[in-house]
Amino acid sequence: MAVDEVEDIAVDGLRWLTGTARETPDDGLAWPTKPSEDAVEPTLYKGTAGNIPVLLEAWRHFGDDAYADTALRAARALAARVDDLNDDSLYFGRTGLALVLRTVHAELGDTASGEAADRALRLVRSRFDGTRWGELFELMGGNAGIGLGALLCGDPDLAVLAVEPYLRTAERTANGVHWPFRTGVASRLHHVSHGTLGMALALARVGDATGRGDLLDLALAAVADVVSRDSAGPDGFLAPHSTPQYLPDLIDPVSYGWCHGPSGDAQLFRTLRDITSDPAWTALADRCWHTVTHSGIPRRLRPGFWDNNGRCCGTAGVLALACDRIAEQRDAFNFADVLVTDLATRAIRDGEGARWSNVDFRSTPADLEPQVGWATGNAGIVRELLRYVRLARGGDPGYAFTWPDQPPVSLPA
After folding, report:
1. H-type alpha helices, 111-212
2. I need a surface site. Which of 4, 95, 114, 381 has the fewest CB within 10 A?
3. Residue in 52, 61, 162 with CA at minimum distance from that of residue 389
4. How far apart are CA 358 and CA 310, in angstroms?
């Protein structure tokens, strides 16, 4: 596709996203997960916090202050939600709000956002029970994500507090260690979003930043467990979703996206490459990419195989890794072009803008209502389309907002 056409779709996606915002009493802006819903959603995963990064991205990309103004209004509404959440996690709770508000302060100079971020982190710290914050114990909803968010917010003490419990709760396996992702579940999940590799990512980054070799060593032991479960070597890399399979009637045993597959695994291996300078991690990331590009995605080969366009579990998340590789390794654009063309073809475009419908083959109708946020909606998709456009034009390969579990690109000399 012509790069200008991809950019036009991204603009239409931004128009639809901003058009679905709801005004709040304090002259702020907030979003529901889907336009048909009344209640607004504050979280990084699927709500207002996850929409602000793409507004900052658009502001940087186009140089249009209207996007920055919209981000500021969204931050105002987000700050008002800091005190009333019951969840402290990165993707589903208060830590995610703190990270986005800290970024708005840094990027746009909004001191009120910085003060709200400080308040959010104080509340997070106060709700720690000595081991965890709730039922979940992983990256999206538990300690690992809180540790990553605190580190990026400039609070390494809280980051260490969050990840130290992994030292005493690790379960020894034949080849390393792992942990339950939530209380009362026998299955052990293996990938970034809810599993061992997400916990390892937090341990590695916090350990590296704070000089805690014991945390980094534990991260490497956790990665060793998952690497031992690979079934696609020596050229590829593919570990199962979980052992024993979690919810086997609902969840496939293997996947290829960021959340439970090699697209996300490669982000952990890129992180370890940067921390250790060991080329073995680059080789593992390359094996992940081999598996992804030979998997058949983004074609929908059978019902349920690949039915999500979004950043979390779909095509946009794979595009993020494709663009990382273009920037770092001078990969050709071929596969990124395939992904972008698929997203463009599936876009619903009309007078309101552009949006994407995901599919649930078990439902009738199977086409789901388009969503707004980062995980499976416009915010996550448009952010990756804009970055693709910049790369295609020889521009900045970075982001306005660095996602906690996607390391910045390391540009070749």
Report:
1. 111-126, 143-152, 156-163, 165-169, 196-210
2. 4
3. 61
4. 8
CA–CA–CA angle 274, 276, 280 (5° rounding): 90
240 upstream amide cis, omega within 30 of 0: no
| Distance of alpha carbon 61 from alpha carbon 234, whole angstroms | 40
Q: Would you say 98 and 153 are in contact if contact means Cβ atoms under 8 Å apart?
A: yes
Beta bridge partners of 188: 243
Q: Which residues contact 96 (CB under 8 A, 6 or more apart)?
A: 43, 44, 45, 49, 50, 89, 90, 145, 149
Q: Which two tokens stand for residue 295?
A: 């998997």
Spatial separation of the C-alpha atoms in residues 244 and 126, rounded to whole Å = 35
Q: Are strands 171-172 and 177-178 parallel, antiparallel or unpaired?
A: antiparallel
Sign of CA dihedral 52, 56, 61, 66: positive
* One-letter amino acid of 92: F
What are phi and psi for residue 170, nearest 5 degrees? Answer: -65, 140
Question: Distances in Å between the alpha carbon of 90 and those of 137, 144, 182?
Answer: 12, 9, 15
CA pair distance 50, 171, nearest whole angstrom: 33
Q: Using CA atoms, how far apart are residues 216 and 226, in angstroms rounded to an integer?
A: 16
CA 280 – CA 303 distance, rounded (Å)? 36
Q: How far apart are CA 233 and CA 284, in angstroms?
A: 10
Q: Summarize pLDDT for 248-298 with one digit per residue, the tens.
A: 999 999 999 999 999 999 999 999 999 999 999 999 999 999 999 999 999
| Mean pLDDT score, 301-323 | 97
Using alpha carbons only, what angle is made at residue 264 by residues 94 and 269, rounded to the nearest 5 degrees? 110
Residue 413 binned pLDDT confidence (cut-offs 50, 70, 90): low
The radius of gyration of the chain from alpha carbons, rounded to an integer in Å, stands at 20
Q: Which H helix or E strand runs over 171?
A: strand 171-172
Mark out the alpha helices in 211-305 (DSSP H runs). 213-227, 262-276, 279-293
